[in-house]
């Protein structure tokens, strides 16, 4: 870190007239289009305040009519009041009281951070600064003119300072947070302050913003009276037809970092800020008049500190308002520095020619134009360049207006930006093109792309936006784009994950997911309980040639874990289990190799998931799967387990291959009597109702099968080499007991659901030599163990193994009336796709878990790439007219009003039916919550969180307390601390009030929910 360290522009977002985002902004500039238009009817009655400029030889001396503007045009944002309050946890009534500039800043800041390939949540709690340039506060004048209507919400909804503070609060940013008002130079001065803050180490990221909304005709009238307003509402900088200022709106946010930090994180960089500066005109020939000497001194000093001269500057983005005096002075000040340069002229332009003067956002509008020009290595043309003002003598100053785009040369290119305030505060910046970086890609590397949103409608819109953008990206960036989406797009409740090995398949998958999101049967996220995960390890019979080889090839972490296990097993198996799996060797079916291989695959999968943060709270194993389960539970060391499973398989392979196994569609209780007297048969597995397995001598199995066929009972022989878990295994039991004798005996660290006992192990039971010996012949009581597992309230069960054997059994055993349990198979079987690990991580994430995505990607794939930022819901509207005090208020879009007669919705989204008596206390709580927050009652449920979902802050909590005490006076004064503790959800609030009511036997409630 140094005092002169360059600062990288790593992210940006903007809205300007005629451009909803940075991509449209660039297109507007390159096309040379006009973004101005007529004053929207929503703002004020433009004709009422309009008077045409007088014409004729004496017009300059004609008195201007007071209270009138000479224009009905300007640069206006479309739907400037559109906002997504629920996204930020803001109650509708609070949002309606907020200055729309705050609303625009919030959404723009979020999108800019995402554009920096960073999740906004990752900046929470960090020393990130917020610097906002703003000069308009007209909302306050409109919102606070009726003193009787002022509420606590209006205090936080207004004021310059709240623009910055609002962003810091909702994104939980702990660095400097301030608003800057130096009039038209506000946002470029904010950039100057942010650069210094980064260089001093005061913050590590900085969000720099500018905002301007035109809500009343006040400034238009002022400009007209001062002779500064262009009648057609257009700025024509440096043009012979320049006749004044056309006003404009806009909002923009830049994300800045120290260049060294950005490069260390391999973050994409748009351009580099080399130096900035600010000064004041001092006493000139008028406080609103520009000062040539001050401008010249500032520009020269900034160039000197940046280590450049006029010869190094390729183009200058000028202040360029289109006033005759302002253009003349700026051209003279620049010309003093550029007129002696060698080579050609410096390109000169001003974005104000495209849509007008954005005032508080003007500096950042020009800065973003310059940043994008350096990024695209092209300078857009200047509107009105064909009508250059000859009095400015631009050629003599070695300055030129661009009539067509200018292609910038390769190598480092420098540019400069100026912004001057009406009161004399000036700002200037020097930028350079971003340093060239080269990053390797892995063509064909798979990935899983994640998209998340607050609700189903936004999910669909964002899926389609990502699909459209990805369809235009290079195919070799697939894994990097997927990794970036995991990093940036994975934190919201409505989720879709699409795994793919090529971009066309990914784009098709995203579009198909968008189509499915329209399905009305698609479940919402609901309020999930805290996740608890169980690993269920597959037993023998799941093996197949090449099993889970896709995991090794597509998941570096799994490959690493399998390599370790291969080394542990090799001394006992005599060959590489890893090579056996990767080569697809049919010897995998031999017990001496199948059992070690199943253990290796299961343990490596479990270790990979655990490393990714998916750690089990419970374990369960089917037969040989119990060894990997024991390792995960901490009861066995992997080295000991490797020796035991190899010896177990070796011993079983020495037995005669005269046994078999038979699946019988009867309950175990019905099968056991049929085994009486058949000493060479035994109950091998109880997998569920009507799912019993018998094992033993093939001849006796055939006789049993014939008998069952006579009873029309379905049976199915299993393809196995031996009669596992049968009396035929007895000859190896004692030998295996001796092999287990020297293993350390430890209690599992996790609840271990034993399929030997059919239940969780108790504190007095151990996985010792007797247990492992008994396991060889004992029936696998999977159904009983699984029922015990479900009784714990587990939320997710992942089958760990090379095939989905247990998942179907678990689905049938899952209680129909219990809490939902999400079931997943790590590897569905031999026909699973080559990117199955990516699919699994996506499935687990969609089910509410949070994997560490890095485990799926090689280092070269973990490269941030820009993705389209979030698309917000635009259905909420709230605006106030800027008409005069004697005019009626036009229709605004107020916060939704609660329906006091509506019965409170239940947590399942339904409402009390006509036959149900509504709970009066619940009705009261819901009515007050909806009224205070301005929420639609149909969207407020018992499980709605007051703070996160409904936007209740301390002010609204106190208002709720006051309302409850007024409605239920017999409850007395509610302690604030108690009430706040009870306010996690609406249901919690109802339960708190009910408990308070029960302590007062005299309190009764009317059906409307009022006390008496």
Describe this protein's structure.
- The structure is a single chain.
- By secondary structure, this protein is of the alpha/beta class.
- It is 36% helix and 14% strand.
- The chain has 34 helices and 27 strands.
- An eleven-stranded mixed sheet has the order 5-4-6-7-1-8-15-14-9-10-12, with helices on both faces. A six-stranded mixed sheet has the order 25-24-19-18-26-27, with helices on both faces. The chain has a four-stranded antiparallel sheet with strand order 21-22-20-23.
- Helix 21 packs antiparallel against helix 23, helix 31 crosses helix 32 and helix 31 crosses helix 34.
- It is elongated, with a radius of gyration of 36 Å.
- The C terminus is likely disordered.
Our count of helices gives 34
Low-pLDDT stretches are: 520-526, 885-904, 906-917, 1006-1012
Describe the main β-sheet briefly: 11 strands, mixed
β-sheet strand percentage: 5-15%
Distance between the termini: 68 Å
The assigned structural class equals alpha/beta
- What does the average pLDDT come to? 90
Q: What is the number of E strands?
A: 27
Helix content: 25-40%
Radius of gyration: 36 Å
The geometry reads as elongated
Largest sheet, order of strands side by side? 5-4-6-7-1-8-15-14-9-10-12
């Amino acid at each position: 870190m140094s005092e002169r360290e360059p600062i990288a522009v790593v992210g940006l977002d903007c809205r300007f007239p005629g451009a909803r985002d940075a991509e449209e902004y660039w297109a507007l500039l390159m096309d040379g289009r006009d973004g101005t238009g007529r004053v929207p009817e929503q703002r004020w009655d433009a004709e009422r305040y309009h008077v045409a400029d007088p014409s004729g030889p004496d017009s300059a001396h004609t008195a201007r009519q007071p209270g009138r503007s000479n224009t009905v045009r300007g640069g206006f944002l479309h739907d400037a009041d559109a906002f997504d309050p629920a996204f930020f946890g803001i109650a509708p009534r609070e949002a309606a009281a907020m200055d729309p500039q705050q609303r625009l800043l919030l959404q723009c800041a979020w999108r800019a951070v995402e554009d920096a390939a960073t999740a906004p949540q990752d900046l929470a709690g960090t020393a990130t600064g917020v610097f906002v340039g703003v000069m308009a506060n007209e909302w306050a004048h409109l919102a606070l003119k009726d003193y009787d209507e002022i509420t606590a919400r209006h205090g936080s909804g207004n004021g310059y300072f709240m623009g910055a503070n609002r962003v810091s609060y909702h994104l939980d940013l702990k660095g400097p947070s301030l608003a800057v008002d130096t009039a038209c130079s506000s946002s470029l001065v904010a950039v100057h302050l942010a650069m210094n803050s980064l260089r001093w180490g005061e913050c590590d990221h900085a969000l720099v913003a500018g905002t301007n909304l035109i809500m009343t005709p006040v400034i238009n009238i002022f400009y007209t009276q001062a002779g500064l307003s262009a009648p057609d509402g257009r700025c024509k900088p440096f043009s012979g037809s320049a006749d004044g200022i056309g006003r404009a709106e806009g909002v923009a946010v830049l994300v800045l970092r120290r260049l060294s930090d950005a490069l260390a994180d391999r973050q994409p960089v748009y351009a580099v800020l080399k130096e900035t500066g600010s000064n004041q005109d001092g006493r000139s020939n008028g406080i609103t008049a520009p000062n040539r000497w001050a401008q010249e001194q500032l520009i020269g000093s900034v160039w000197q500190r940046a280590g450049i001269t006029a010869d190094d500057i390729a183009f200058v983005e000028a202040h360029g308002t289109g006033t005759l005096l302002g253009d003349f002075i700026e051209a003279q000040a620049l010309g003093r520095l550029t007129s002696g340069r060698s080579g050609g002229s410096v390109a000169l332009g001003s974005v104000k020619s495209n849509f007008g003067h954005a005032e508080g956002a003007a500096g950042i509008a020009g800065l973003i134009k310059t940043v994008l020009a350096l990024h695209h290595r092209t300078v857009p043309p200047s509107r009105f360049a064909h009508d250059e003002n000859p009095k400015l003598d631009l050629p003599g100053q070695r300055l030129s207006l661009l009539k067509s785009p200018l292609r910038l040369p390769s190598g480092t290119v420098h540019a400069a930006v100026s912004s001057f305030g009406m009161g004399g505060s000036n700002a200037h910046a020097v930028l350079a093109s971003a340093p060239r970086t080269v990053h390797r890609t892995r063509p064909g590397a798979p990935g899983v792309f994640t998209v998340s949103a607050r609700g189903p409608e936004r999910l669909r819109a964002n899926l389609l936006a990502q699909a459209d953008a990805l369809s235009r990206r290079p195919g070799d960036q697939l894994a990097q784009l997927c990794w970036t989406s995991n990093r940036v797009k994975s934190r919201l409740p409505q989720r879709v994950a699409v795994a793919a090995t090529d971009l066309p398949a990914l784009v098709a998958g995203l579009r198909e997911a968008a189509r499915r999101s329209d399905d009305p049967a698609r479940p919402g996220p609901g309020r999930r309980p805290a996740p608890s995960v169980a690993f269920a390890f597959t037993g023998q019979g799941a093996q197949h040639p090449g099993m889970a080889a896709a995991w090794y090839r597509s998941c570096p972490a799994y490959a690493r874990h399998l390599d370790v296990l291969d080394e542990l097993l090799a001394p006992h198996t005599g060959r590489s289990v890893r090579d056996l799996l990767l080569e697809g060797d049919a010897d995998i079916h031999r017990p001496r190799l199948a059992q070690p291989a199943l253990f290796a695959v299961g343990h490596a999968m479990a270790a990979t998931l655990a490393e990714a943060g998916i750690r089990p709270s419970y374990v369960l194993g089917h037969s040989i799967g119990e060894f990997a389960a024991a390792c995960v539970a901490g009861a066995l060391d992997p080295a000991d387990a490797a020796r035991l499973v190899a010896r177990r398989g070796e011993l079983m392979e020495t037995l005669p291959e005269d046994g078999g196994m038979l699946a019988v569609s009867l309950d175990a209780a019905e099968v056991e009597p049929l085994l009486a007297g058949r000493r060479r048969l035994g109950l091998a597995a109880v997998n569920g109702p009507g799912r019993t397995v018998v094992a033993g001598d093939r001849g006796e199995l055939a006789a049993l099968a014939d008998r069952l066929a006579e009873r029309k009972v379905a049976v199915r022989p299993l393809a196995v080499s031996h009669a596992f878990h049968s009396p035929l295994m007895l000859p190896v039991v004692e030998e295996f007991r001796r092999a287990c004798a020297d293993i350390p005996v430890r209690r599992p660290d996790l609840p271990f659901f034993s399929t030997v006992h059919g239940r969780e192990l108790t504190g007095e039971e151990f996985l010792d030599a007797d247990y492992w010996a008994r396991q060889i012949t004992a029936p696998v009581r999977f159904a009983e163990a699984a029922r015990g597992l479900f009784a714990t309230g587990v939320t997710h069960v992942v089958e760990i193994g090379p095939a989905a054997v247990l998942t179907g059994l678990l689905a049938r055993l899952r209680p129909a009336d219990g809490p939902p349990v999400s079931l997943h198979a790590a590897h569905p079987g031999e026909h699973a796709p080559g990117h199955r690990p990516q699919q699994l991580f996506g499935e687990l994430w969609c089910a509410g878990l949070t994997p560490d995505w890095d485990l799926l990607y090689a280092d070269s794939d973990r490269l941030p790439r820009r993705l389209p930022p979030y698309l917000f819901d635009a259905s909420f509207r709230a605006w106030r007219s800027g008409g005069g005090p004697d005019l009626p208020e036009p229709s605004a879009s107020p916060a939704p009003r609660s329906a006091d007669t509506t019965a409170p919705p239940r947590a399942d989204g339904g409402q009390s039916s006509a036959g149900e008596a509504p709970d009066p206390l619940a009705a009261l709580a819901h009515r007050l919550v909806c009224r205070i927050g301005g929420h639609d009652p149909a969207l407020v449920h018992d499980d709605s969180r007051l703070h996160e979902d409904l936007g209740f802050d301390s002010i609204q909590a106190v208002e709720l307390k006051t309302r409850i005490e007024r409605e239920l006076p017999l409850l007395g004064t509610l302690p604030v601390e108690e009430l706040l503790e009870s306010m996690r959800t609406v249901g919690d609030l109802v339960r708190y009030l009910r408990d308070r009511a029960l302590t007062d036997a005299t309190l009764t409630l009317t059906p409307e929910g009022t006390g008496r």
